[in-house]
Amino acid sequence: MSIIRTGRNHIADIKPLTGDVALLVRIGKMKFVFPIHQHDEAIEFCKSLTDDMAAHTDVVPIDADELLRVTGTTNTEIMASLSEADREDIRQVCIATSLDVIRNCNDPKLLRQARTMLSHMDACAAAH
Fold first, then answer.
1. Angle (nearest 5°) at CA 123 between 118 and 126
2. Which residues pair with 20 in a beta bridge?
3. In this structure, what DSSP letter does residue 52 have?
4. Which of these three, 39, 71, 103, is where a domain ends?
5. 49 and 92 in one domain?
6. Dist. CA 10–CA 25, nearest whole Å
7. Same structural domain for residues 8 and 67?
8. Rounded to 5, what percent of the chain is helix, strand, coil?
9. What total number of domains does the chain contain?
10. Do 58 and 10 fall within a single domain?
11. What's the domain range around 104?
12. pLDDT band at 124, cuts 50/70/90?
């Protein structure tokens, strides 16, 4: 974590971990979300507000599950908002990952999950 000092306040900038997809900016009770690749924009946003606030600002990387909780949305809502091409790209990644698990994994639980995923996606594809 790094601390960025501003005129009369500071920004706590927490380093992202593998798997983080967004940045949660907290200023007092207010929360804002930035895509993980917009770190510089999130910091500039904080700098523009922090000195006018009583509370310091936190820039906290979050993973996909945390993002869903923070925004109050679901995977289904996100998928529905994507274009058909984006949904197909995600479907292809899921298929490739599931096949990789089946070929290379010995964990019975993961194997069942991968087979279930492939079976479900095949049924979804047949419905379209």
1. 125
2. 63
3. T
4. 71
5. no
6. 13
7. yes
8. 55, 25, 20
9. 2
10. yes
11. 82-127
12. low
- Spatial strand order in the sheet of 57-63: 2-5, 10-13, 57-63, 20-27, 30-35
- Cross-strand pairs, 57: 11, 27
Write out the DSSP string of 67-122.
Answer: HHHHHT--HHHHHHHS-HHHHHHHHHHHHHHHHHHHHH---HHHHHHHHHHHHHHH
Q: How many CA atoms lie within 13 A of 7 on its CB side?
A: 9
**Residue 128: pLDDT band with limits 50, 70, 90:** very low
pLDDT tens track for 2-55? 998 888 888 999 999 988 999 999 988 889 999 999 999 999 999 988 888 888
Whether 29 is in a domain gets the answer yes
Please identify, among 71, 100, 115, the residue that sits at the C-terminal boundary of a domain.
Answer: 71
Contacts of 73 (CB under 8 A, 6+ apart): none
Q: What is the pLDDT of residues 88-114, one digit of tens each?
A: 888 888 888 988 999 999 999 999 999
Residue 125, pLDDT score = 54
Q: Is the full-model pTM beyond 0.85?
A: no
* pLDDT of res. 28: 81
Q: Are residues 39 and 93 in the same domain?
A: no
